[in-house]
Amino acid sequence: MRTAQSGSVSESEFEIAFLDRAALERHGYDSKNITDNDLQELAKLVGDNYCNNPKFSEDLCAACTSLGLKRN
């Protein structure tokens, strides 16, 4: 996963999906044998799928509104 540097770096990138073993288990998946690399790949796939989903725009708008971000 990409990590952002601390400070005010305007080009920082963050992954959208956050997955951990507890999240997988809450959804009924066995996480005993999963590696950190597996979790990273799952997060990437979920993030890619989500960003291509029409609901992403709606959720992004709601999140930005809740943070007080304004549109150009």
Explain briefly what this protein structure is.
The chain is mostly helical. It has helices at residues 21-26, 36-51, 54-66.
Account of the protein in words:
The chain has 72 residues and is an all-alpha fold. The chain has a domain at 21-66. The chain contains three helices and no strands. The chain has helices spanning 21-26, 36-51, 54-66. It is elongated and about 45 Å long. Mean pLDDT is 81; it is low at 1-6.
Largest sheet: none
Q: Determine the structural class based on helices, strands and strand pairing.
A: mainly alpha
Distance between the amino and carboxyl termini: 29 Å
- Overall geometry comes to elongated
- Counting DSSP H or I runs of 4 or more residues, the number of helices is 3
Keywords:
72 residues; mainly alpha; disordered N terminus
How is the topology of this model organized?
Layout lengths: L20 H6 L9 H16 L2 H13 L6
